[in-house]
Amino acid sequence: MSPIDPTLLAAWERVAAALERMAPPHPPKPDFEAADAFVWSASTLELVPVDHVSRVDLRLLRGIDRVRDQLVDNTTRFAERLPANNALLWGARGMGKSSLVKAVHASVNASGGRARLKLIEIHREDVGTLPTLMSLLREAPHAFLLFCDDLSFDGDDTSYKSLKAVLEGGIEGRPDNVLFYATSNRRHLLPRDMMDNERATAINPGEAVEEKVSLSDRFGLWLGFHKCSQDEYLDMVDGYASAFGLAMPKAQLTAEALEWSTTRGARSGRTAWQFIQDLAGRLRVRIESP
């Protein structure tokens, strides 16, 4: 056997080194004991611990009692390693969809008697890296709530197919220790004009639209949030004012809260919270988040 040409061998070594540099880095092993909440960093393929989650107490979320109880029950069953559904929280802006997810996570963990759930937030634009994240979570000894806020897809975005595969359709399927919660202003996650365009250009329009709509079907639990009435809005304001010790005569509180909502053209949990922040500032009362 003739010896290998040193020049050729050096060239092979350079090619091998170049291929190694081009290969994606292995994700660092997460330290799940570092926190109860994390943010997924798609750029570095790592979970960043969140020491303090911005959230409100579950008891302060008013006007959404039915959906609150459904999500608490679903999450509690998941924490007990019983069957539970992926959940899509959809509907009116500012009605507490993302606040509810974070509040339920804290409430279920605080109830004790079970392993603590880990909350992981993934940004909408990073949905395409879900398979990589799932591979990190699949063998972990914890249960994870994977949370995506304001999930929707526009234009020619095809990353929704990765989400569909992760939720149910992939060969491995969703890990038993992962549950996916998403919030959206859209019930079907895709705009109507996008579906209409698919119908107009497809060979089989029915199948094209079915492909789009079926993404929402991957969520077994649909929780709708609707615009609140004036009474519900005032109940939110009263609840916040009482919880944070904001002393003001009831009639004056009501009048100022209604004026605040009128100037913004909306009544919602977000509007009520913004009014309370303004009121607390005027009364020089500090509001400490839980």
What do these coordinates show?
This protein has 10 helices and 7 strands. The chain is an alpha/beta fold and 290 residues long. The protein has 2 domains: 32-224, 3-Layer(aba) Sandwich (Rossmann fold), CATH 3.40.50; 230-282. Strands 2-1-4-5-6-3-7 form a 7-stranded mixed beta sheet, with helices on both faces. β5 (143-148), α5 and β6 form a beta-alpha-beta unit. α8 crosses α9 (250-264) and α8 packs across α10. It is elongated. The protein starts with 5 loop residues before the first helix and ends in an 8-residue tail after the last helix.
Keywords, separated by commas or semicolons:
290 residues, alpha/beta, Rossmann fold, 2 domains, seven-stranded mixed beta sheet, 45% helix, elongated
In short:
With 290 residues, the chain is an alpha/beta fold.
List the helices and strands and how they pair.
Elements: H1 6-22, E1 37-41, E2 46-49, H2 65-79, E3 87-91, H3 97-110, E4 117-121, H4 130-137, E5 143-148, H5 160-169, E6 178-184, H6 192-201, H7 205-217, E7 221-225, H8 230-243, H9 250-264, H10 269-282
Parallel strand pairs: 1-4, 3-6, 3-7, 4-5, 5-6
Antiparallel strand pairs: 1-2
User: Could you give the order of strands across the largest sheet?
Assistant: 2-1-4-5-6-3-7
Q: Helicity range of the residues?
A: 40-55%
Summarize the main sheet: 7 strands, mixed
Q: Could you give me the name of the CATH homologous superfamily of the largest domain?
A: P-loop containing nucleotide triphosphate hydrolases
Total strand count, please? 7
Mean pLDDT: 83
What's the Cα radius of gyration? 24 Å
What's the order of the H and E elements?
HEEHEHEHEHEHHEHHH
- CATH domain fold name of the largest domain: Rossmann fold
Name the quaternary structure.
Answer: single chain
Task: Return the CATH architecture of the largest domain.
Answer: 3-Layer(aba) Sandwich
- Low-pLDDT runs of 5+ residues are 198-204
